[in-house]
Design brief:
about 110 residues, 4 strands, PTS_EIIB_2/3, 4-stranded parallel β-sheet, Rossmann fold, transport, alpha/beta, kinase, protein-N(PI)-phosphohistidine-sugar phosphotransferase activity
Length: about 110
């Protein structure tokens, strides 16, 4: 199972993206768990995820979120604004898979 945490402002519009991502994952036979939490809530849940994504509307908090996620050993990235705006779950799922692949390749390096 791939566990994704999306850090957003309130989770309202992000819930649409979550549904789109779950549909894309099911179509590709991936087991995916996606949770959207506000910038004030995500810190307590870092240990429970594999990837942290940052919603574009809170990109001003990117450095602090990246710092905490990296300290927890979690790959982190900003969701591409166009993919967020269009609720393109397939593209965001691809971003998650790429982040995981890069992380695994980085850990395999001597």
């Amino acid at each position: 199972m791939i566990r994704v945490l999306i850090v957003c402002s309130w989770g309202m519009s992000t819930s649409l993206l979550v549904e789109s991502m779950l549909e894309a994952a099911a179509a590709r036979n991936y087991t995916l768990s996606v949770e959207a939490l506000s910038a004030g809530e995500y810190m307590d849940r870092l240990d429970e995820c594999d990837v942290v994504l940052i919603a574009p509307q809170i990109r001003h908090l990117r450095k602090s979120i990246e710092k905490l996620a990296q300290e927890a050993g979690k790959p982190v990235a900003l969701i591409e604004p166009f993919h967020y705006a269009t609720m393109n779950g397939e593209a965001v799922l691809e971003q998650v898979l790429l982040l995981l692949q890069e992380t695994q390749e980085g850990q395999a390096q001597p």
